[in-house]
């Protein structure tokens, strides 16, 4: 084998891609119900867009970005997440002027140079939504409710919604001081990453997956106890709305997010079926990001979800919801005349939106029947040399095995 896909990337082959299509179709229909419209942004952007929005001290910016210089010596980065590009586009095209609340969804590949393992790739796919322009807690609840509904609708039977508030620039420094105080004397015992986090953004130590760090932080002061009046009210209202929408949630005071731009509401949906990479979906408010990227202060909220992880869970649940689409008809032929007829019949059937296929390898009838089976065809039309002369063909139902002779002119009506 001369060439192989790069470490941490994967091909989605035809016997998998139908699952992706069905998943994407389902998602799109849900987004439409909530009145979100699609946005497609470039796969690469100026590096500075990501360093400014995601935050210099995050794992993504410090270790995970695919950054390179192009021919013009500009620093370019393959997008590691979707929000930065969406907000850039929102500002560049003044979407906020056209509508005070802009509700967007996206699908796309993201790129992070991390150690590949189950549920963690270097090129992976996310879907996400962003609602830009409102600070209203009912919007937080709508979005969290939508994320939960997506899990249900696509058939995830086991998941848990974690909810927290990570405050704002008014209350965060108060908690930060307390946390630093708590950690004093203990910093020597945390991992190297957490030593850096301690210096630069101590709240992010809660995001560390290492046991020794988690143990050390067990009794650490949590943000939720230090929320300012406004953040506390907002959080309470989000929970009220969620209860009104009958969305089950679990308050998790240790939940923080890996990106700096989050404020107030933070949430994640986890599935126990996934093992250590258990987060299907993560999101929250980012009320400061639009301003950080040069716009007027504009509150916003969104989430991003890993499509590979959803597919993984669905596979572990034996793909309950996903069925491959079949072709309606396979036309098996013997002889040149039948082949010419089949070629025209395929065209006519497709014009009528009937999915069909025929043989292009001049195989034996037996081999063609095998092919029809492999293609999962509902029916097979067998046109032999003799039948062709008589203007007849045999139609076989692949499910029941039933066969009947029909006139060649009748095929379209029978299948319609
Ligand atoms: P994790 O803690 O699992 O590293 P994260 O906080 O880095 O996740 P986000 O940036 O919030 O993840 O991305 C949202 C979702 O995208 C994750 O919940 C996950 O489902 C998916 N995701 C993130 N990184 C990867 C990856 N390297 N491979 C596959 N999916 C990923
Ligand atoms: Mg990560």
Briefly say what this structure is.
38% of the residues lie in helices and 21% in strands.
Q: Your description of this structure?
A:
The chain has helices at residues 14-33, 47-54, 59-64, 83-92, 95-98, 137-154, 172-183, 192-200, 211-216, 229-244, 289-292, 307-316, 336-351, 365-374, 385-390, 411-415; strands at 37-38, 44-46, 66-69, 75-78, 102-111, 123-132, 160-165, 250-251, 263-270, 279-285, 300-306, 329-333, 356-358, 379-383, 392-397, 403-407. The protein folds into 2 domains: 14-171 and 227-316, Bira Bifunctional Protein, Domain 2 (BirA Bifunctional Protein, domain 2, 2-Layer Sandwich); 329-415, Rossmann fold (3-Layer(aba) Sandwich). The longest helix is centred in the N-terminal third of the chain and has 20 residues, at 14-33. The strands form 3 sheets. Strands 1-5-6-11-10-9-7-8 form an 8-stranded mixed β-sheet, with helices on both faces. Helix 1 (14-33) runs antiparallel to helix 6. It is elongated. With 416 residues, the chain is an alpha+beta fold. It binds adenosine-5'-triphosphate (ATP) and magnesium ion. Adenosine-5'-triphosphate is lined by residues 81, 112, 114, 119-121, 124, 126, 258, 277, 279-282, 304-306, 308-309.
């Amino acid at each position: 084998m001369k060439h192989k896909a790069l470490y941490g990337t994967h091909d989605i082959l035809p016997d998998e891609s139908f699952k992706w299509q069905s998943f994407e179709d389902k998602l799109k229909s849900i987004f439409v119900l909530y009145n979100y419209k699609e946005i497609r942004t470039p796969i690469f952007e100026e590096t500075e867009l990501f360093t400014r929005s995601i935050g210099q001290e995050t794992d993504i910016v410090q270790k995970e970005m695919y950054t390179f210089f192009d021919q013009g010596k500009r620093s370019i980065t393959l997008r590691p997440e979707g929000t930065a590009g969406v907000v850039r586009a929102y500002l560049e095209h003044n979407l906020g002027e056209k509508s005070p609340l802009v509700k967007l969804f996206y699908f796309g590949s993201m790129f992070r140079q991390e150690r590949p393992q189950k549920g963690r790739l270097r090129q992976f796919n996310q879907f996400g939504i962003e609602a830009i322009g409102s600070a209203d807690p009912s919007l937080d609840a709508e979005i969290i409710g939508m994320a939960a509904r997506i899990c249900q609708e696509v058939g995830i039977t086991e998941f848990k919604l974690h909810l927290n508030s990570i405050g704002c620039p008014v209350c965060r420094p108060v908690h930060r001081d307390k946390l630093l105080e708590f950690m004093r004397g203990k910093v020597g015992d945390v991992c190297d990453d957490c030593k850096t986090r301690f210096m630069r953004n101590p709240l992010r130590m809660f995001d560390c997956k290492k046991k020794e760090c988690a143990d050390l932080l067990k009794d650490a002061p949590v943000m939720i106890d230090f929320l300012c009046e406004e953040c506390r009210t907002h959080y309470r209202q989000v929970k009220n709305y969620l209860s009104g929408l009958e969305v089950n949630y679990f308050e998790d005071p240790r939940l923080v997010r890996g990106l700096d731009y989050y404020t107030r509401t933070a949430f994640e949906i986890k599935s126990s079926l996934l093992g250590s990479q258990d987060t299907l979906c993560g999101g929250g408010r980012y009320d400061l990001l639009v301003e950080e990227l040069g716009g007027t202060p504009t509150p916003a909220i969104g989430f991003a979800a890993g499509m590979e992880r959803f597919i993984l869970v669905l596979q572990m649940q034996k793909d309950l919801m996903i069925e491959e689409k079949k072709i309606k008809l396979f036309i098996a032929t013997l002889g040149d005349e039948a082949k010419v007829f089949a070629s025209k019949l395929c065209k006519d059937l497709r014009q009528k939106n009937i999915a069909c296929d025929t043989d292009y390898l001049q195989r034996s009838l037996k081999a063609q029947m095998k092919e029809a089976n492999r293609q999962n065809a509902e029916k097979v039309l067998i046109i032999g040399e003799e039948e062709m002369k008589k203007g007849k063909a045999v139609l076989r139902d692949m499910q029941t095995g039933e066969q009947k002779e029909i006139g060649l002119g009748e095929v379209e009506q029978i299948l319609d």
